[in-house]
Amino acid sequence: MKIVIIGGGPGGYVAAIRGAQLGAEVTLIEKDKLGGTCLNVGCIPTKVLLHAAELAETLKKDAGKMGIEVEASKINWDELQKHKDKTVSKLVAGINGLLKSNKIKFIQGEGKLLGSKAVEVKGRDGKITKLQYDKVIIATGSVPTIVPLPGADLEGVITSNDALSLNEVPESLCIIGGGVIGSEFASIYKALGCKVSIIEMLPEIVANMEFDIVKPLKDEFLKDGVNIYTDTKVERIEKSPQGLKVTARKAEGSFELEAQKVLLSVGRSPVTENMGLEGLNIKTEKKKIIVDKNMKTSNDDIYAIGDCTGGIMLAHVASAQGVVAAEAIMGKKPKVDFRTIPYCVYTKPELAGVGMTEKQAKDAGFKVKTGTFPLYANGKSMIMNETGGIVKFVCDASTEEILGLHIAGPRATDLIVEGALAIRLEATINEIITTIHAHPTVGEAIHEAAHDVHGTAIHL
């Protein structure tokens, strides 16, 4: 079986490795750098900056309370950029090593689908080569969405890609879009001493997550001087003596904000243009490639995974879909459960959720029970001086099956796997209650929140 994969991000390279493990002859095509958006201008570099921001804030806010005397600390932006680039380079090199050890052929170039089961690859030197395939997996990812906003093309208006590698920290930053990406950059830049404002069209920031866990993040932002404007629409961006002027409108009228930089953070768009999809009976909808449960397109020989399908644009989802596609092609029956997708925001406090929110469960027709536990009553959170978070379970009232787990607090993005596993195993809340959790840990708060579903939380 000859499999050609177009795109070397977390979906493409994982699909390549899984295909090779199952005995396929795999060729991976990537026009830029292995690792795609996630590794090069997404997950990894943003988390490097977020970790540095967290350390800086901990030293500034908490060190003195813990008896640690630190002289005024500041971030050396140039050194931080070097650390970020070094981390990315190491991980890219690691992927290269994995491809070689799995005997996967790697071609750097831009792939385009032709008829007769062929892919045309245009190399960086302009040289054209053609590859024959039995099956193709499209994993071309996404790019930041540029909204048709007056002034969006002005100098100083940046995307999330640009925000990772600015020459210096701006004095002020206006972020248009208060979703996951916008909130993470707000967390980074406010810790670096930048004056940050967020403008969001929806009633809340990070609106796809459980409100009860978003509130602690919003409270922390407001406490740190971040201006948040929800239910607000941006009308235009203009040049001003301070850099840029953003005109926005709320229900009560319009207002203006001045900022040195403006970050457009309103989502991402699938990369599917100029790939030859049209002549191969591949159905699309608003740039999204339509696929079935095995990631197969309307053409039996062509599969698509990750952001280019326009679904949930997360690296771990793309990787899981890559495994599904490779296994389906090789005649296996994939068993990945997509109900268990964790949603993570690497701010301070971290946010993480899996399964249904309380509203989603009620909208789906469930009678719901919930249990919560605040981290101000959790010993490990008190030790860490991070007590502003909360844990919340959402359960089916009749069966007590766990429908969702939502966490705001330290290491929430690591702890959420307990909820993902619980949903995968169709666990009930009693199975969490009867599982011993270590002390002292933040994870104890999960245990207590489970008890609270029955009104029996021990430490509250």
Task: Tell me what the structure shows.
This protein is 31% helix and 27% strand. It has 460 residues and is an alpha/beta fold. It has three domains: 2-144 and 269-338, FAD/NAD(P)-binding domain, CATH 3.50.50; 157-266, FAD/NAD(P)-binding domain, CATH 3.50.50.60; 349-453, FAD/NAD-linked reductase, C-terminal dimerisation domain (Enolase-like, domain 1). The strands form six sheets. Strands 5-4-3-2-1-6-19 form a seven-stranded mixed beta sheet. It has a five-stranded parallel beta sheet with strand order 8-15-9-10-11. A five-stranded antiparallel beta sheet has the order 20-21-24-23-22, sandwiched between helices. Helix 1 (12-21) runs parallel beside helix 8 (315-329), helix 3 packs antiparallel against helix 4 and helix 3 packs across helix 6. It is globular and about 65 Å long. The model has no long low-confidence stretch (mean pLDDT 95).
